Amino acid sequence: MARVHLWASLRRFADGLDVVEVEAATVGQMFDALERAHPGLAPAINAGLSVAVDGEIIANNRAAPVAPNSEVYLLQRLKGG
User: Fold this and answer.
1) Which of 16, 47, 49, 66 has its CA at a distance of 20 to 30 angstroms from the CA of residue 3?
2) pLDDT average, residue stretch 60-67
3) 66 vs 79, more confident
4) Which pLDDT value is given to residue 60?
5) Integer distance in angstroms from the first to the last C-alpha of the chain?
6) What pLDDT, on the 0 to 100 scale, is given for residue 81?
7) Mind listing the pLDDT tens digit for each residue in 47-60?
8) Residue 69: which pLDDT band, with cuts at 50, 70 and 90?
9) CA 64, CA 81: separation in Å to the nearest integer?
């Protein structure tokens, strides 16, 4: 299962966990699984998050692959300027 790391302000919506594991083959499936397991994360997910999968920032691509052994980091939305 993919390991999803949550930043501090999201942990309260996931029973205080800093890492949760989900089964997902894509970023979109990962978001869906997170919302099912921890419904309190839905507002943050729907507002938009940045995602790093195995060290690569994924920009607005719900179809981006997530491997079973991936390390995923949810980050506050990164904005360019």
Assistant:
1) 47
2) 94
3) 66
4) 85
5) 35
6) 56
7) 989 999 999 999 88
8) very high
9) 24
- In single-letter form, the type of residue at position 65 comes to P
Cα–Cα distance between 56 and 13 in angstroms, integer?
A: 25
CA distances from 58 to 26, 27, 48, 54, 63 (A): 11, 9, 12, 10, 10
The DSSP annotation for the chain comes to -EEEE--HHHHGGGTT-SEEEE--SBHHHHHHHHHHH-GGGHHHHHH-EEEEETTEEE-S-TTSB--TT-EEEEEEPP---
Residue 6 buriedness (CB in 10 A; 0-12 / 13-18 / 19+):
buried
pTM assigned to the model = 0.90
